[in-house]
Amino acid sequence: MIRTSRALWIGFFSCLFVGVLAFGGGWLTARATGASPVDTFVARLLNNDVRQATPTALGDQFAVFWDVWDIVESEFYTESEIDRQKMVYGAVRGMLAALDDQYTNFQEPELAAQSRESMQGKFEGIGAYLRTEGGAVLIDKPIKGSPAMSVGLQSGDVIVAIDGKVVAEETAGMSEAEAVARVAALIRGPKGSEVMLTLRRPPQEQLFEVQITRDEVPLVTVNAQMLDNGVAYIQITEFKATTTELLDDALRELLPQNPRSIVLDLRNNPGGFLTTAQEVLGRFYDGVALYELERGGVEKELRTIGAPSELRAFELPMVVLVNGGSASASEIVAGALRDKRPNTTLMGEKSFGKGSVQNIHTLRDGSSARVTIARWLTPNRDAIHTIGIQPQYVIVPSEDAEYSVPCVADRRPPAGQQSCADAQLAWGLRLLTGIVPPAAVPTTTGALPGGETQHGRRTDRLCLPHRAAGERDRALLQPEPPALRCERCPSLSAAYHADGLFSRGGGSDSAVYRCARRGRGTCKSITACAASTDHAPAAAGRFSRSADRVALARSAHRRFCR
After folding, report:
1. Of 171, 303, 335, 461, which sits 20 to 30 A from 492 (CA to CA)?
2. Of 107, 110, 163, nearest in space to 370 by CA
3. What is the DSSP string of 89-127?
4. Residues 6+ apart with CB under 8 A from 58
5. 53 vs 59: CA distance, rounded Å
6. Other CB atoms within 10 Å distance of the CB of residue 155
7. Which residue has the higher pLDDT, 470 or 355?
8. 328 is known as an active-site residue
9. How far, CA to CA in Å, does 220 sit from each of 120, 231, 407?
10. What CATH homologous superfamily does 122-218 map to?
11. Catalytic member of 328, 356, 424, 493
12. CA 402 to chain CA mean position, Å
């Protein structure tokens, strides 16, 4: 059987492209195949002779299944006919769920079709993201150049009805994911067909109607532009079937401008086709891309997929930006570039940690079963599953004015301003251009003796945290010379000092205030907090990443840092 693709996929759908593309909370690495034993199981289960067809070796195990099936058939109270197809799907879903693997799952035909379509990089529909809020289904964002954008749909528009069908009635009793999928199914349709949406645009209560002609909508997964000082910025949002072509177009435009360095932005990239990831890597180096560990201990080496010579950027210094939303294929790319490409630096935050591989089996009725079949390792054979990839330089997300950078991709400047604020991109540009010496870049807390990171690169010693570290951090950290106590990194110093003041995700609200009171006037933690109003929220976000902690930080600063 020919392996047609290997993809990183999203397993649970919480928001969705109308056209249709879905995104959600778990990522899986997968490869599409044809019919499977699961396919055979579904077909046989629906057959009248299924009991006789049950394999002899499984007869005893299936006895309980058939006992329950018979009980339901003979005793279950219902005013309508039992949906046996639904029972079968439920049985298959339960069978896969029993494997206790979050990336092994079953999709019914409608969702499976949407998933297959979503990975192709283009689709037919109106081109908009959907989300739920307060029980309603809203337009989250129209896609650039899509029919949804051309008719003026805006983020936050509430979808009230679709071709006269009231959304509230159509989605009654459904989960958020089911509601979004149902609305998407009502809106989607073939190119050239029309759909009438009845909408409400808060805060206005008045309804309005928009008739939209569906069209083929390309998914833009690559954004690129030249920045100052010869830095080529490339953002990849997903690894779709069309991503390599879009990247090649970007390189054809950028490379003739003789860039001095590259920023590759993989933040919030949930993954995509593995073959696409291999092709992307082939634009930046030649060699091993990853290893797969399959059943039975078999290890397979997978290499980069080469590019034409004019599209290769092997020698340019590169910064790769990652964060907790970087998963699967984006982790493959980040890990491979870190391990194999000279003069490459990872910055940002630790990645998601998705290091397993799934087979996607398309079944004869259009449903699909996805089963974990392998784990993958970086070229240095690092396992990242549930661990993630720690960048050489951990950068606290911040939109302080000091981190002003050009607005990239689809970002727009705040009203009255000409630029955007992005601490991670700002530090990347500083490192590449030498405007600020690399030694001033905040460093990961995972420094080893001698100033080496876990991956052998030198790290800055100036801003190593001198807070009361946890046991794991304490074992990793070098003692810091008294003269190097973060004087040159006030924002980061505030974050480090405030650990314990604002918690690393644990502790109570009262503990926050107790520490603040204790620090008033004498505690060095509070002086760091007082350095800037913005430092306290940054510290809370750095260590807990929750909105309530940010609010607590601001409140504590107002009360005790004046």
Report:
1. 335
2. 107
3. HHHHHHHHHTT--TT-EEE-HHHHHHHHHHTTSEEEE--
4. none
5. 10
6. 12
7. 355
8. yes
9. 11, 21, 17
10. PDZ domain (2.30.42.10)
11. 328
12. 27
Summarize pLDDT for 86-130 with one digit per residue, the tens: 999 999 999 999 999 989 999 999 888 878 877 777 778 999 989
Considering only the top CATH level, what class is 220-460? alpha beta
**Cα separation of the two ends of the chain:** 70
The neighbouring-strand residues paired with 448 are 452
| Cis peptide leading into residue 20 (ω within 30°) | yes
CB under 8 Å to 380, separation ≥6 — which residues?
Answer: 335, 339, 455
* Among the listed residues 496, 485, 487, the one whose alpha carbon sits nearest the alpha carbon of residue 538: 496
Give start and end residues of each alpha helix (H) in 126-235.
147-150, 167-170, 176-187
Catalytic choice (115, 235, 358, 368): 358
- Any idea what DSSP says for residue 435? S
* Residue given tokens 């067909």 in the structure block: 193
Question: The tokens 């911040």 sit on which residue?
Answer: 398
Angle value at C-alpha 468, between 466 and 469, nearest 5 degrees: 90
- pLDDT (tens digit, 9 = 90+) per residue, 156-196? 999 999 999 999 999 998 888 889 989 998 998 999 999 99
What are the backbone dihedrals phi and psi of residue 127, each rounded to the nearest 5 degrees, phi first? Answer: 80, 70
Place of tokens 């009203």: 415
Task: Specify whether 204 is catalytic.
Answer: no
| Domain coordinates in residue numbering, the chain | 122-218, 220-460, 483-562
Query: Amino acid identity, residue 87?
Result: M
HEC string for 151-175: CCCCCCCEEEEECCEEHHHHCCCCC
